[in-house]
Design a protein that fits this description.
This protein is mostly helical and 139 residues long. It contains three helices and no strands. It comes from Micromonospora mirobrigensis.
Length: 139
């Protein structure tokens, strides 16, 4: 329970109380406006308590999450960890395979496009001359 009394958690508790009281107060204000004849306020009279309920839900969920996460306390510090394979947690997750076309992009029997051949020659020259600028291309 000491984990719920840190400065960060005290701020969360205060924020929860302020928000719930504020939302319920706004809901009561809308009930009074609806009683005076403002029909639109009936919807808001329902909406504000729902917001207050949501704040309570999120606060409760965070409290439970914090109480479940217990820091590991070693039972005996003199016991060395067991030698064995690396833990499975270090293994990256399964990734989606990358689909790569294994066949040629154009049919092998087709005549070569002149513009494509010139562009490929230009790219080959740039790759062979890494310090060159594109304006230095002799072609």
């Amino acid at each position: 329970m000491k984990r719920l009394w840190t400065p960060a958690w005290i701020a969360r508790h205060v924020a929860m109380v302020v928000l719930v009281v504020g939302f319920l107060g706004l809901g009561w204000w809308q009930v009074n406006r609806a009683a005076e004849g403002n029909t639109l306020s009936f919807g808001y009279a329902i909406e504000w308590p729902v917001f207050a309920g949501f704040v309570i839900f999120v606060w409760w969920r965070e409290v439970r999450h914090t109480l479940r996460d217990r820091p590991e306390v070693p039972t005996s510090p003199a016991t060395p960890p067991a030698a064995g394979p690396e833990p499975a947690a270090d293994v990256p997750g399964v990734r989606r395979p990358v689909r790569v076309s294994r066949g040629p992009a154009h049919p092998v029997d087709a005549p070569e496009d002149g513009d494509l051949a010139a562009y490929n020659h230009y790219l080959t020259w740039l790759n062979a001359n890494p310090g060159a600028r594109p304006g230095d291309y002799p072609g």
